[in-house]
TrEMBL record:
This is DUF1367 family protein. InterPro entries: DUF1367 (IPR009797).
Length: 173
């Protein structure tokens, strides 16, 4: 889900004609998919246009996830898991990938330090752009200096990197 904080900037004087034009474009150029959603959309626009200077509203959008891309990503994770020697449990492997990709919340640890807590990649938590961003970060991590060596320590750095590329190559899109 993509979220933005939006505020009304009244430092730019808009004429009534400009406001009316903007509202007409926003209510006719973009519409709710049905009557209920159109009413929600109009209510949101009225709220946004009536904000006082400096007042803030939060706007959230969700782009539906692509089932095809989801299956591709999950198959890639599974292929790497099956090829590696380090992890016995897929959930722990996935958490390691999330941490490596930076898909975490930083929280207080049990001894007072800060530790990474992996975030969800579920359909409810991530829309399509966020999933693709995570996927790209995961690939950057897997192709980085540490992942392959960690997964195939017995191979040495060069052979481990080759092994990673062999697995990833099968998933080039």
């Amino acid at each position: 889900m993509s979220q933005a904080l939006v505020m009304r900037d009244r430092s730019i004087a808009l004429t009534d004609a400009e406001i009316n034009t903007a509202q007409r474009v926003m209510t006719n150029g973009l519409r709710g998919v049905d009557e209920k959603n159109q009413k929600r959309w109009i209510r949101f626009l009225k709220t946004a246009f009536s904000l006082e200077s400096g007042e803030i509203i939060e706007v959230g959008t969700r782009a539906p996830r692509s089932g095809r891309f989801h299956r591709y990503h999950m198959a890639l994770e599974q292929a790497i898991f099956e090829a590696q020697d380090k992890f016995q449990h897929f959930d722990q492997f996935r958490n390691w990938i999330k941490v490596g990709a930076g898909h975490v919340d930083w929280v207080a640890g049990p001894k007072g330090g800060v530790v990474p807590l992996p975030k969800s990649i579920s359909y409810m938590e991530m829309d399509e752009p966020a999933m693709r961003e995570f996927h790209d970060a995961m690939l950057a991590f897997l192709r980085g200096q540490h992942a392959a060596v960690y997964l195939w320590k017995h191979l040495g750095a060069d052979k481990a990197a080759e092994m990673m590329e062999t697995v990833l190559h099968g998933f080039d899109r």
